Amino acid sequence: MALTSFELKARDGRARTGVIKTPRGDIRTPAFMPVGTAATVKGMMPESVRDTGADILLGNTYHLMLRPGAERIAKLGGLHKFMNWERPILTDSGGFQVMSLSDLRKLTEEGVTFKSHFDGSKHMLSPERSMEIQKLLGSDIVMCFDECPALPASKDRINESMQLSMRWAQRSRDAFGDRPGHMLFGIQQGGLEQDLREESAQALRSIGFDGYAIGGLAVGEGQEAMFGCLDFAPGMLPEDQPRYLMGVGKPDDIVGAVKRGVDMMDCVLPSRSGRTGQAWTPRGQVNIKNARHADDPRPLDENCSCPACRNYSRAYLHHVFRSNEMISGMLLTWHNLHYYQQLMQEMRDAISEGRFDAWEAAFHAKRAEGDIEPI
């Protein structure tokens, strides 16, 4: 059997469940990947992230190349050893972060020259350099280097960007070479334009990748427009390989994406929300800083088994947040990541059992109820 493979186990409508097999372990899909930007999921120990049910983490090429440096991480044994995470790691290509530095970067056919937002030092990222960095990190799943324009943008601008990304995809493929046990994903671009998405998908399929990402969404277009694109974009990609929607999202975004055939997602939201006093529950979002929680002895969610819900009251979580105690972000992040992984497991089960539509209806109905009544 190949060192890496993707097995589809069940379909329910367009929703899919399966497993990506890698030398470092299986990734159950649909999969949510917590984001470990700088070789850590903020506020969490690696073993705690694993305890939430995560099979894979995402690392950030741009941040790690600047600090502490890819060469340094390689000398120290690679990213897995460096951050004490022995399961699979996906690294983004660095393209998205560089593109967001519009006033600090220069874009050419060769790649992107930019200034570090840390110290102003000059750097160059190209498809070849991005592949080199991700190899030094030891990533299990490598993303090809692309450009991602912010929406809204003109169709001409989106087309120009997509064509450049496809040329960079070929260069990424060539530079990646043959690396058994590691996977390279291509990234579909084209904004919200169906014809450009189809052209991009055909270009990627002709190059040939181990998996395919849907890029250029969750960049300001809104959920309705994103779902409109996902109504056609995943179906343009190979059925027998994983499909990854980059940078998504809120729980209802994730459910809508899975419904439309997406297998993998990532987002900083669970940890960022945790640090700002926001908790995600089946009833929607809870703002723990609100005064209504100050005397509430109940847990965030009585049906949740995470440490925050098992051992602490809303009153305590309110107190430590208002007191700026570190444990606040730690507990709320743990809860949020636990909830996201629970959501993925529920969807995997529902798809396997052919009841995804009923599960989705119950998911939305519970969210519509809103948070529990104050005491």
Structure description:
The chain is α/β, with parallel strands linked by helices and 375 residues long. It is 41% helix and 19% strand. The strands form four sheets. It has an eight-stranded parallel β-barrel with strand order 4-5-6-10-11-12-13-14, surrounded by six helices. Strands 1-2-3 form a three-stranded antiparallel β-sheet. Helix 7 (155-176) runs parallel beside helix 8 (194-207), helix 11 (269-275) packs antiparallel against helix 14 (326-352) and helix 13 packs across helix 14 (326-352). The longest helix has 27 residues, at 326-352. It is globular, with a radius of gyration of 21 Å. The model has no long low-confidence stretch (mean pLDDT 96).
Structural descriptors:
375 residues, alpha/beta, TIM Barrel, 2 domains, 3-stranded antiparallel sheet, globular
The gist of it:
The protein is an alpha/beta fold.
Total number of helical segments?
15
Percentage beta strand: 15-25%
Poorly predicted parts: none
Number of strands: 16
Level of helix content? 40-55%
Strand arrangement in the largest pleated sheet: 4-5-6-10-11-12-13-14
Distance between the termini: 58 Å
Round the mean pLDDT to the nearest integer and report it.
96
Number of domains: 2
CATH hierarchy class name of the largest domain = Alpha Beta
Judging from the principal axes of the Cα atoms, what is the shape? globular
Largest sheet: 8 strands, parallel, barrel
CATH architecture of the largest domain: Alpha-Beta Barrel
CATH homologous superfamily placement of the largest domain: Queuine tRNA-ribosyltransferase-like
Structural class: alpha/beta
